[in-house]
Structure formats: structure tokens, C-alpha cells
């Protein structure tokens, strides 16, 4: 396979548009590509010539039965031409992946995070990078996902899970690895990955709702993630779903965080039983009919149904993706969630397309790698 030379960077705006369209939708015929981008045949030829010459694009085999000749040969991306490293940093672990240019995970490497000191965390990411790069030497960049507020895709403004404030983490990792680095809020990275390559691909209006250690929300309008001043501010702590609901240290009484987050669910069960159960154990107990676990999980399911119904009413998405390490709730109490959604919406409202994705921390790391692809390679996620 043709290798991509360094000369394919930087891309002009027109070349970038072509590369993104083929990356997300390819392989595409020249006719279809020109139609999607509103280009003449001559303009498309001018834009694709340098991309083909550098090896970023290739002419794939024409479909069986098509006319012979160059116009029938679809254009495709060379997905394996570069590798991208993605990391998800939690309070006690760093999860790492290597992806292709199309975000397919080809390797994984995880290490415990034993210190929240930013320099030591950067050392660990650098060590993991070196380990992964030995097997994947064509690494083009690094993406890092962190729970909390991130500024300019470089500075962790605030991360409650890590106790960080105003940490220039991208620069710390760049110094140690020599590779360009993008740092972003982990939910934002996951939303970008699902918009380009996952459940939201091709959709104009799309929502990602995550439940796990906290509550995450991302909105896509016009095929682009909406960035606001409130983003990454943990406002799930203030989404009141049940004013009479549980009161926890992590949020207002009856908030989305108080009802749905894994720590809160575990805390409620422990307060009632005196035993510290794991989340999966609580789900199993609820499924088996244990009264206390069933009550807590039932309240969480009704809260999730309220939240989904309100999102559907106000954002009017074509699809809501429910993701995160807490989505096992749907396996045990999905009917309660769906019945609550139906009961709260107008009888003639369009049904909610609610998709559940069982995701682990490698999916979050993959999201960070997609940010690296977008920002470092294609310069496409700057809005």
C-alpha cells in the first residue's frame, strides 16, 4: 500500500473538504464526491491530484459491472497510512489505544495512574506512548480525554476527578513525546467520534448522553458539535429530575447526577444496607428482585426517562445515543426508561430513537484519537 509522505500537510480548505468527505463516507466515486461538495469535475480533479500524489487518497477497485476507466474508480483514504494515539485519563487509570486514520482501534495499552501530579501523569502518558510507538512507529499525534473543563484543546482548566486547575497538559506531554498533542473534555471527544464514525454519522441533529462517574451531554446540530460557554461545567448536577429525590454530595437533591451516576447509586444502596456493593452487583440484585436495589435502580430509570424525554422535546434530535460505563441500567430497567419517555411526551410526538452503546474506557480513548485526527491532521474541528 502507498505510504503517505509528510508533504500532504498542510491541506488547503478545498483539499481538506475532499479528504474529510472521503474519510467519513468513502470509498466514493468522483461523480458522487463532486455532487456532495458542489464541485465541477475540473475543480475536483484539481483538488484530488495532490491528495492522490501524496498517497493520502488512492483509487480503489471499481464496483463489479461498472464502466471501465478512471472516472469509475472510487476514491478512498489510506486508513493505515498513519497511526493516532488516544488516551483517556480517569482518577486511577490511563487507558490508551492506537487507531487508524478511520479510528479503528488496532492496539490497546493501559496503566494505573498512581499520582495526580500533572508532571508524573505526563511522564506516564509519555511512557505509554513509547510502548505503543514501538509497535506502531508511524504515529502522527496524540489525543487525550479528561473529565472536566478544557481550554483551547491544551489546558485543563478544571478537573474535579484529578484535582487539576489551569494545567497546560498538552505542552507537558508534547515536551516528553515530541508529538503534537490535543487535550479535550472526554465527552466532547466521544461526541466527535460518534458524529464522524459512529451512531451520529450522517445525522443533522444528534445527542450523546453519558452516564457513569458523572453525567455527560453533547449536542450536534447541522452535523457539528455545539460548543457553548456552559460546556464541560458538570451541569448534570443541576438538572433536577425529581425534587424529592436523593440528596448526595455530588449534586442537588434529585439531580441527574444524584439519581444516575454510579457513585451516587452505590452510595444510596450502601446507606440503606450498610454494605458497599459494586455497580454491576447492584444491577444484578435489582434484576433478581432485591427490594432496596430494585428501588434505587427503578428511581434511576425513571430519572433517565425524564431526562431523555426533555432532551427529545427541546433538542428534537434524530437520535439519542446513551453511552458510558453506566448503560447496564438499560439491560435491567430499560422498559421503565422507555415507558417513562412515552408517558411524558405528546401522544403524536415522533418516537425517540434511543440507541444504547455498551462502551468501555477504550471507546473514550478512541474519541480522543479522533480529536487528534480532526485537529492535527485535517484541521476540521475548530468551530
UniProtKB/TrEMBL annotation:
A Pfam family hit: ROK
InterPro entries for the chain: ATPase_NBD, ROK, WH-like_DNA-bd_sf, WH_DNA-bd_sf
UniProt signal peptide: none
Source superkingdom: Bacteria
Family membership noted in the UniProt record: Belongs to the ROK (NagC/XylR) family.
Family annotation (PANTHER family): BIFUNCTIONAL UDP-N-ACETYLGLUCOSAMINE 2-EPIMERASE_N-ACETYLMANNOSAMINE KINASE, ROK (REPRESSOR, ORF, KINASE) FAMILY
Protein name: MarR family transcriptional regulator
